[in-house]
Each structure stands twice: as C-alpha cells, then as structure tokens.
C-alpha cells in the first residue's frame, strides 16, 4: 500500500496541511458566519416572541383588573340601591311597598345579568387573547401553523387542567 510507504510521508503531510488549510479557510469565511447569522436571527425571533407574550399577558391582566373593578362597582351600586329601597319601603304603605319591592327585584336581577354578562365578556376576551397568544407563539417559535379552533381547544384544556 503506497500510503504506508515511509518515503512518501513528506508529500502526504504536505498535501494534508494544504487540504486542511483550505478547508479551514472555507469554513471560517463561508460556513461559520452563515450558521452564526441563523442562530442570531432565531435568538432575536424568540426574544421578540417572548416580549410579545409578556405584552399580551399585561393586557390580559389589565382587562381582568378592569373587570374586577367593574364587578366591585356593580356590587357597591347594587348595595346602595338596595339600602335606598329598604328605607323607602319602611315609609310607604303596604300596597306600595309590594310594588316597589317587585321593581327592586327586577332591577337587581338586571344588574346581576349585567354583571354576569360583563364577567363572561371579560373571560371570553381573556380566552381569545390566550388563544391568539398560543397561535402566535406556536407559529413563531415552533414554526407550526395552528388554527383558531385548535388554539381555543388547547386553552380550554389548560384551564380545565388548572381547575
């Protein structure tokens, strides 16, 4: 075998150094910068996705705080209306007292319906934001396109799992 002949070792070592030198220069100038650019772009994209997720979380928390404030105000308003009704009822005649009590029950039921509707709207908005976040993060981080129904189903499953 000619490669094991000691008289040709010098030329083999010479060509080995030349070939490895050329390969090193090609890798250093062409391949490594491209790989580095791809890694940097992916890191920037992930960081942007995380920033967007944090922004969406903050918006969801703001919506939730507004909902809780509206709920507290509605309860306070309902208590206030109830106290006014009780003082009026004590002064009115028996027949007028019955009519006024019926009116207050209707208003309370309407206020509770508004509270329930506001709460449901806030919960639905939070779920939509969560589904949109799931869709966006899945598409940008994983490169997988998820339809709205699947994202909503995943959010519902996560909510059920958390209790």
What can be said about this structure in brief?
Helix content is 90%, strand content 0%. It has helices at 9-91, 94-142, 148-162.
Task: Give a verbal description of the structure.
This protein is mainly α. The protein has one domain. Helix content is about 90%, strand content about 0%. It contains three helices and no strands. Helix 1 runs antiparallel to helix 2 and helix 2 crosses helix 3.
Helical coverage, percent range: over 70%
Structural class: mainly alpha
What characteristic shape results from the CA principal axes?
Answer: rod-shaped
CA-to-CA gap between the ends?
74 Å
The tally of domains stands at 1
What Rg is obtained from the alpha carbons, in whole angstroms?
35 Å
The averaged pLDDT comes out at 90
Structure annotation, total helices: 3
Assembly state here?
Answer: single chain
The percent range for strand residues is under 5%
Give the helices and strands as they follow along the chain: HHH
Largest sheet: none
List strands and helices in order, with pairings.
Layout: H1 9-91, H2 94-142, H3 148-162
Helix pairs in contact: 1-2, 2-3
Throw out a few tags for this protein.
163 residues, mainly alpha, 3 helices
């Amino acid at each position: 075998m000619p490669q094991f002949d000691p008289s040709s070792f010098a030329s083999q070592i010479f060509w080995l150094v030349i070939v490895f030198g050329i390969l090193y220069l090609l890798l250093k100038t062409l391949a490594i910068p491209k790989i580095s650019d791809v890694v940097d772009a992916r890191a920037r994209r992930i960081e942007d996705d995380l920033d967007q997720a944090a922004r969406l979380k903050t918006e969801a928390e703001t919506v939730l705080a507004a909902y809780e404030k509206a709920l507290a105000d509605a309860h306070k308003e309902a208590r206030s209306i109830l106290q006014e009704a009780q003082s009026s009822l004590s002064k009115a005649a028996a027949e007028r007292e019955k009519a006024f009590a019926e009116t207050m029950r209707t208003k309370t039921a309407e206020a509770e319906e508004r509270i329930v509707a506001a709460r449901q709207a806030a919960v639905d908005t939070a779920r939509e934001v969560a589904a949109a976040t799931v869709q966006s993060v899945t598409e940008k981080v994983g490169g997988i396109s998820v339809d709205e129904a699947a994202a909503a189903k995943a959010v519902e499953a996560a909510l059920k799992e958390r209790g």
